[in-house]
């Protein structure tokens, strides 16, 4: 495509919206002239397709091929990540469960030892004839030394995040809740693709409560 042709197409195409905006149809002559304009614009449209379609097709094919090649190498990495990260997370969770269980047992053992020491001290105080001290020791809450079992899973560069998502398990119940006003209507949206197909098929005969079939010239 030469520069002259490109400039001519550009000037013709870019001026069309202003022409359409300024054009007034108040007579049969105007109506016919409007049709002539549409025919002329169709010619310009065809010229644009002739000039640019080969360029667009080549660019699209090149882009599609590049994306395909990139995807060929990226997909195995994502696949490996999808397989390995859950294994790491499961190991992390299991080790944390084991650590917490060990911590619980250690705290329980420490508490028992503290109770035995306190009981022995109370017995010795009782044997020494100091009943008040013995009672004070028995009534005093046992304070065990704090226990902390460190995590054994090493710190790594990989991080995990919790991803929450909704799953509709009973669509009918959801619709009932929305119809009753207990949930907002924004939780669902009409299937416009299906409704448009019905409108195209039935036209004025379509009768669905809350929906009307409309048409417009194109």
Largest sheet properties = none
Radius of gyration: 40 Å
- Mean pLDDT rating: 91
**If helices are DSSP runs of H or I spanning 4 or more residues, what is the number of helices?**
6
Count of distinct structural domains = 2
Helix percent reads: 55-70%
Explain what this protein looks like in three dimensions:
The longest helix has 100 residues, at 28-127. The chain is elongated and about 125 Å long. By secondary structure, the chain is mostly helical. It is built from six helices and no strands. The mean pLDDT is 91. The protein has two domains: 3-165, no CATH class; 166-218, no CATH class.
Quickly list its features:
218 residues, mainly alpha, 2 domains, 6 helices, 68% helix, elongated
């Amino acid at each position: 495509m030469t520069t002259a042709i490109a400039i001519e197409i550009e000037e013709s195409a870019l001026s069309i919206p202003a022409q359409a905006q300024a054009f007034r149809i108040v007579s049969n002559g105007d109506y016919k002239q409007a049709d002539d304009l549409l025919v002329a614009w169709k010619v310009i449209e065809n010229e644009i397709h002739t000039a640019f379609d080969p360029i667009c097709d080549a660019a699209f094919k090149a882009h599609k091929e590049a994306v395909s090649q990139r995807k060929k190498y990226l997909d195995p990495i994502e696949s490996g990540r999808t397989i390995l990260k859950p294994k790491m997370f499961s190991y992390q969770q299991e080790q944390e469960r084991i650590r917490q269980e060990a911590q619980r047992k250690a705290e329980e053992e420490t508490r028992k030892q503290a109770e035995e020491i306190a009981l022995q001290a109370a017995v010795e105080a009782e044997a020494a004839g100091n009943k008040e001290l013995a009672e004070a020791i028995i009534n005093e809450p046992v304070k065990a030394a704090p226990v902390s079992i460190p995590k054994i899973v090493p710190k790594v560069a990989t991080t995990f995040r919790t991803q929450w998502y909704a799953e509709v398990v009973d669509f009918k119940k959801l619709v009932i809740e929305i119809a009753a006003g207990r949930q907002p209507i924004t939780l669902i949206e009409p299937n416009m693709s299906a409704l448009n197909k019905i409108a195209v098929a039935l036209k004025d005969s379509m009768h669905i409560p809350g929906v009307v079939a409309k048409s417009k010239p194109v």
